[in-house]
């Protein structure tokens, strides 16, 4: 009890009062140390324990992994059982250290469904389909956990038919399995198919109902979402918030406000949704009014307001809001970085990023996307290379399509079209429309008609009706009309 409340002195006194502590009581005290961040003390106490069990080992490894001391966790786990190995593997995935997770997976003496699920989710996180598919192919026991992991992985890549094939071959189905396949169809835009499967489900839970509602809401099918909400066996705050967001996304502010006022219970998330709806109208006065009416704020509340203010061009006011926050975290840092990025001034971006690191705020993929976006506005190639390298090597954050697109844009603005083209051709994944469109924009900027024509053809392979591609190509040709092409 004391340990859960962070009162370690009282917890130690309670433990010391036990005449003959056993492995159970010792593990509880070890957990108290670990959960309160006293890693060194936890390791010292662990070394003194006369008896240890699997829970003791797992607690220690989890504490190391939670604080990114994964080398110590690896040393501890190297001669333990599969639970310890799985705990460390999940630690790597949680910290988005996917290469390290893959290497550990290869070194593990044995795998089970939990191991495979962890590494598959890691590969999904960085868009590595080939290695994820390889792990799926190696799974021998298709239990519910493994099947759910496969479905979620295939759905992430839009492989709906393959996911449905896994469902049909699976010897074990659960409500989670059905929910995964319904979600897969819904996210890929097959809403009617998702609803058909939903109606065929032998059992549904609140997650399934909310998944279907949110899918129609996000697709702008507000009328259908309203009908689904009416069929709910039991309404939850999640369902109400999903419907509220649907009204907000549809820019139907009056209906959203009326729905919000009638909600039987409003969580902080509910307030954030209505705040975001007002922010979408770019009305600063009304948005501030909603913000001040909120019973409490979280990081999302502050970030919504900071982004709104920065979008209005008032970066100084956004900075003042950030400084007024009772606590600062990566979400709000990212919001402010986006504000800086829009100015194209690199000096405050670099300074603020350093200050965030000193505050102990760990940057994530979005952080570096904001920084790279700011760099791309001014075409600072060396800054882009330095930032990209720091993200990967200093912070261990894998590059995503978003980051590569920024680098392509910077190369293009710097006039290095060939290097930009080479980068797109050598991406660690199949480039999609967005990468080619970024390169097409660079071709327009530099008046490179040959590359522009080639890239435009690649863009239209993804979308033959992409008017933006044809417009950009027309601009490229117009811009380069006076250039003699040999």
Give the structural class. mainly alpha
Low-confidence stretches: 1-6, 66-70, 482-486
Q: What about the largest sheet?
A: none
- Work out the oligomeric state of the chains in this entry: single chain
Portion of residues in beta strands equals under 5%
Helical content stands at over 70%
Number of helices: 30
Give the termini separation. 80 Å
* CATH level-1 class of one domain: Mainly Alpha
CATH-defined topology of one domain: Serine Threonine Protein Phosphatase 5, Tetratricopeptide repeat
Tell me the overall shape.
Answer: globular
Number of strands: 0
Following the backbone from N to C, one meets helices and strands in this order, namely: HHHHHHHHHHHHHHHHHHHHHHHHHHHHHH
Radius of gyration: 26 Å
Report the CATH architecture of one domain.
Alpha Horseshoe
CATH homologous group name of one domain? Tetratricopeptide repeat domain
Q: Average the pLDDT over all residues and give the rounded result.
A: 75
Question: Short summary of the structure?
Answer:
With 486 residues, the protein is mainly alpha-helical. 73% of the residues lie in helices and 0% in strands. InterPro entries: PPR_At4g14850-like_plant, PPR_rpt, TPR-like_helical_dom_sf.
Description:
The protein is mainly α and 486 residues long. Among the domains are: 205-295, Tetratricopeptide repeat domain (Serine Threonine Protein Phosphatase 5, Tetratricopeptide repeat, Alpha Horseshoe); 400-486, Alpha Horseshoe (Serine Threonine Protein Phosphatase 5, Tetratricopeptide repeat), CATH 1.25.40. Helix content is 73%, strand content 0%. The protein has 30 helices and no strands. The protein has helices at residues 8-16, 23-35, 39-48, 54-66, 70-77, 82-94, 98-107, 113-125, 129-138, 144-156, 160-169, 175-187, 191-200, 206-218, 222-231, 237-249, 253-262, 268-280, 284-293, 299-311, 315-324, 330-343, 346-358, 365-378, 381-394, 401-413, 417-425, 433-446, 449-462, 467-479. The model is unreliable at 1-6, 66-70 and 482-486 (pLDDT under 50).
């Amino acid at each position: 009890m004391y340990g859960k409340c962070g009162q370690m002195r009282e917890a130690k006194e309670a433990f010391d009062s036990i005449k003959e502590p056993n492995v159970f009581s010792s593990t509880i005290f070890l957990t108290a140390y670990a959960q309160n961040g006293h890693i060194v003390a936890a390791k010292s106490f662990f070394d003194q324990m006369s008896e240890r069990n699997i829970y003791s080992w797992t607690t220690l490894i989890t504490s190391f992994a939670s604080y990114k001391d994964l080398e110590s966790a690896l040393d501890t786990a190297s001669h333990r059982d599969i639970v310890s190995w799985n705990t460390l593997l999940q630690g790597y995935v949680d910290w988005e250290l996917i290469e390290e997770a893959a290497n550990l997976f290869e070194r593990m003496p044995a795998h089970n469904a939990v191991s495979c699920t962890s590494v598959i989710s890691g590969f999904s996180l960085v868009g590595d389909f080939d290695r994820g598919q390889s792990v799926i192919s190696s799974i021998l026991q298709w239990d519910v956990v493994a099947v759910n992991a496969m479905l979620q992985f295939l759905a992430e890549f839009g492989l709906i038919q393959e996911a449905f094939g896994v469902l049909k071959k699976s010897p074990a189905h659960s409500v989670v399995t059905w929910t995964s396949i319904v979600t897969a169809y819904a996210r890929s835009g097959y809403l009617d198919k998702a609803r058909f499967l939903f109606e065929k489900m032998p059992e549904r839970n609140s997650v399934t109902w909310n998944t279907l509602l949110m899918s129609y809401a996000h697709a702008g099918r507000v009328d259908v979402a309203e009908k689904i909400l009416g069929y709910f066996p039991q309404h939850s705050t999640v369902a109400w918030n999903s419907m509220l967001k649907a009204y907000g996304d549809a820019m139907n502010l009056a209906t959203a406000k009326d729905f919000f006022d009638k909600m039987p219970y409003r969580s902080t998330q509910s307030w954030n949704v209505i705040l975001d709806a007002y922010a979408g109208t770019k009305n600063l006065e009304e948005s501030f009014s909603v913000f001040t009416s909120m019973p409490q704020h979280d990081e999302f509340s502050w970030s919504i307001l900071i982004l709104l203010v920065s979008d209005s061009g008032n970066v100084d006011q956004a900075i003042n809001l950030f400084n007024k926050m009772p606590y600062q975290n990566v979400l709000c840092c990212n919001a402010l970085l986006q504000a800086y990025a829009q100015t194209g001034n690199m000096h405050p971006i670099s300074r603020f990023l350093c200050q965030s690191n000193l505050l102990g705020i760990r940057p994530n993929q979005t952080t570096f996307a904001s920084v790279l976006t700011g760099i791309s506005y001014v075409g600072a190639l060396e800054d882009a290379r330095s930032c990209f390298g720091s993200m990967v090597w200093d912070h261990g954050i894998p590059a995503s399509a978003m980051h590569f697109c920024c680098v392509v844009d910077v190369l293009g603005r710097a006039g290095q079209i060939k290097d930009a083209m080479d980068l797109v051709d050598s991406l660690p994944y199949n480039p999609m429309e967005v990468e080619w469109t970024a390169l097409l924009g660079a071709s327009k900027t530099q008046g490179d008609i040959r590359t522009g024509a080639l890239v435009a053809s690649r863009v239209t392979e993804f979308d033959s009706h992409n008017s933006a591609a044809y417009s950009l190509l027309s601009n490229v040709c117009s811009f380069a009309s006076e250039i003699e092409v040999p």
